């Protein structure tokens, strides 16, 4: 019953390719653990847990580790994107585009010039 309640969390974990993941149902509580690629993906899982179970769910215990703590995420630029649009996606604030630019200064000529296929580091801020 609990497992079915949190099926969308488990599906997201599969989609994100969570490593060393496992799930157990014990005493009316779902226990999940694994390792996300980065903090952004861990946050996605927690956001889904809270969406399903509320702000402080008591029927699930999750232990999600992060494999790469050097960056918040990595992003491949798609056609039509800008640094502000990418900042809005990851940070919820388009004005934080400069943090992305600063983290990628070695590969970007300016904050206004990115190309599809560019691999960007999304820094922890």
Structural write-up:
This protein is of the alpha+beta class and 125 residues long. Helices cover 35% and strands 25% of the residues. It is built from 5 helices and 5 strands; from the N terminus they run ααββαββααβ. Strand 2, helix 3 and strand 3 form a beta-alpha-beta unit. The chain is elongated, with a radius of gyration of 17 Å.
Features of this protein?
single chain; 125 residues; alpha+beta; 3-stranded mixed sheet; 5 strands; 35% helix; elongated
Compile the SSE list and pairings:
Layout: H1 2-5, H2 7-15, E1 19-26, E2 29-36, H3 39-53, E3 60-66, E4 73-76, H4 83-91, H5 97-103, E5 119-122
Instruction: Tell me the overall shape.
Output: elongated
User: How many beta-strand elements?
Assistant: 5
Give the end-to-end Cα distance, rounded to a whole number of Å.
38 Å
Strand residue percentage: 15-25%
Strand order of the largest sheet: 1-2-3
What is the SS-derived class?
Answer: alpha+beta
String of helices and strands = HHEEHEEHHE
- The amount of helix comes to 25-40%
Main β sheet profile: 3 strands, mixed
- Classify the oligomer: single chain
Radius of gyration: 17 Å
Uncertain residue ranges: none
Number of helices: 5
Mean pLDDT: 96
